[in-house]
């Protein structure tokens, strides 16, 4: 049995505090966000109930919202903001956070550093991008008993996680159509979520290595959803590596373009009512694409890759690897099948996000799932 060579040092106290705060937000509990001059109680909007509301001083409690959500509410802005209330109405707060038809009537203020930090906590926790924030002067005993975290640590968390990336396990896992495959599991990068590199065949890391960055898609990868082309792209890339000298497939836990599975399904419901994939995310308050790929570059470097041939339709992935210090010597398209359910999705990726998709080249689906060994064009 091979034992990975990894750092045994414990993560820094700052990173531990942020990860505990992420867990508290995901569990629906409030946390305290501390800055030099003030502290703030932060609650996820979808966790707020009448009991939690009693902790909030109405005079200093505001609803922090992202710029995309404010634009949906009718405000022309590129910056996050916060809404003030004379009194807290839980139904109104929920409406302002998620109702696609809601319009703004409350006073809008520029977001404070605490409110921007609260929105970053929501993003890290993959909660809805809306936060209840009650600011108060920093004082001994304020909000006693609640978990506290420093604003500066929340802001630095993502960068620190990428720097702390490490291999925790690896083993041979033969795949259908790619029997020579090794799974290498990393911890770090996106914090509390493990990430996986699948080395297929025997790529020569001294030469440019074929690579695909594939963000996890439960509905498409596992269940064969017809709403996207993710499962096809995953299997086509793995088969291509097996048949063409090997490669590395990074399977990244960034469901729903980084928004998380629960929010992805909320967006799917909006799509069922006429929104396209990007409009649905913006209506919920998310940016066009919440993913980052710096940690993916760190994974490739840890495996020994310096130059890559990237299988992607997404120019952002090409740019991100280049910015992280990898040389992208070539890029190649990887097409999934189109069908009546995903044609609008594919067109939106092409037209709104600049994905390099030629719909005329995409083969038509025949209604059955495709295995890794199925013959089809890349």
Descriptive report:
The protein has helices at 13-26, 50-53, 67-72, 90-98, 113-124, 151-163, 218-222, 230-243, 261-271, 277-284, 294-303, 315-323, 343-353, and strands at 31-34, 38-44, 61-65, 81-84, 108-110, 130-137, 148-150, 166-172, 181-187, 195-200, 209-215, 247-252, 307-311, 327-332. The protein has 378 residues and is of the alpha/beta class. It is globular and about 65 Å long. The model is unreliable at 2-10 and 367-378 (pLDDT under 50).
Mean pLDDT: 89
SS content category: alpha/beta
Q: What oligomeric state is this?
A: single chain
Rg estimate, integer Å: 22 Å
Shape: globular
Percent strand equals: 15-25%
How far apart the termini lie comes to 36 Å
**Level of helix content?**
25-40%
Defining key terms:
single chain; 378 residues; alpha/beta; 14 strands
Write the layout of secondary structure elements.
Layout: H1 13-26, E1 31-34, E2 38-44, H2 50-53, E3 61-65, H3 67-72, E4 81-84, H4 90-98, E5 108-110, H5 113-124, E6 130-137, E7 148-150, H6 151-163, E8 166-172, E9 181-187, E10 195-200, E11 209-215, H7 218-222, H8 230-243, E12 247-252, H9 261-271, H10 277-284, H11 294-303, E13 307-311, H12 315-323, E14 327-332, H13 343-353
Parallel strand pairs: 1-7, 11-12, 11-13, 13-14
Antiparallel strand pairs: 1-2, 2-6, 3-4, 3-6, 4-5, 8-9, 9-10, 10-12
Helix pairs in contact: 1-6, 5-6, 9-10
